[in-house]
Amino acid sequence: MLTRIALVICLATSLAISAGAQVHKPSAGLLEALEKVEKDTGKPNALIYYVKAADDPAIQKAINYRQLIDQTLDQGWTEESEPLIGILDSCQNAFNLVRKGVALDHAEFHDLAEYGANAPIMNFLNVQTLAKLICVQGKLRESKSDWEAALGNYLDAIHIGVDHQSRNAALISALLGVSIEMIAYNQISSLVAAQSENAVTLKKAVLKIQKILAEPPSLMDRLIEESRWNISQIEEARKAAEAGADWAKGSPRAMSEFKALSDVFWDYALSADSRVLEASKVILDTPPWKRDISAYEKQFKEAEKDLKRADKDWPASFINWAEVASRSESKQAHAGLVTVRAALELYRLQNDSYPDSLSDLTPEILPELPLDPFSGKPFVYRRTAFGFDLYSLGPDCLDQKGKMKYDIKTGAFSEGDIVLD
User: Fold this and answer.
1) Domains annotated on the chain, with CATH
2) Distance, CA of 88 to CA of 79 (rounded, Å)
3) Taken in order 402, 404, 406, 411, is the CA torsion positive or negative?
4) What is the pLDDT of residues 19-46, one digit of tens each?
5) What are phi and psi of 268, to 5 degrees?
6) Using an 8 Å Cβ cutoff, are 362 and 368 in contact?
7) Is the Cα torsion angle 368, 186, 176, 161 positive or negative in sign?
8) In this structure, how many other beta carbons lie within 10 angstroms of the beta carbon of residue 55?
């Protein structure tokens, strides 16, 4: 009996997941949901413009040029980038929509829990391609020495990333936003290095990034929203399982046994989700250098074991919020490093040398120093014979003297310092 009940529950859950996956097509229902948010709040919603821009046929066509787009962002505009000119020209309507969205001061997603498994979400590939193309246009403008316009492109891309981490954002949307910001900050870092003698561009970069850093997206909000969404989907799957128990409906005793065993399983599911939620709250409330990652991951495994006790075939999976936090903090470190790097070049232009200490940058150039999210202190800075060393401690929270570079591809908590290229 338990095996049969477990199969019904798992099948119902799979159907609920599949039903949700079916609406995850380009903007299926998303535009309507965002327009409802705009109507309810009375505030123009920047996300509406991004959805329309990402749905532009020119963006879909540009996906075929992914390799050349990535190459241009990595190496700068070259003769090999020329085929992208036509793509950029065809995307002007999409770019204009983005600028309209960036000009607004409000972005808000729909309540995920209200929609449950059928919550419409972004077409992530299109959105990322859109943001990359805006940066590619920046590379083209750099090749024509239009530095301020190029910076404007990179800042527009950052705004797309930030707005995808706004109120009610699903975690996957927020992570997309983080990745877009990282792409754009890398371009600004390159621009700052190339334009170290251009005070106007450096000042604009410092001022704009400082404003963005002043209002960081809340990971705690993402955690709570994601938990509400998870619970709503668990409840949906539970109802679907009970409604699908046709084999038990003809027998009051069988139905009674089904409900009893079903209640035990769902109680396990909700209890496990609740424990992971509380452990994740602790992680997000704790600074990186004090986090006990091993204890957190142990709680993960215990929660998964509880689900397996109820049903060995249950596809238990929890979000590792320690890794989510590390990715977000790495992005924050990049943004802070780019700001400080631009400020150092401004200082050099004004004083014919780099400062002895980062504190010399305040308050004339920076109102206050951005702090390394992995130490809670200013970034590591040292004068050298050739200029300076500047880096973040990175997720391992250890000073590797800037000689071992952090690479997220080797793991969210791998060793190494975050050093700008």
Assistant:
1) 15-221 (no CATH), 323-419 (3.30.700.10)
2) 15
3) negative
4) 333 333 446 689 999 999 999 999 999 9
5) -60, -45
6) yes
7) positive
8) 19
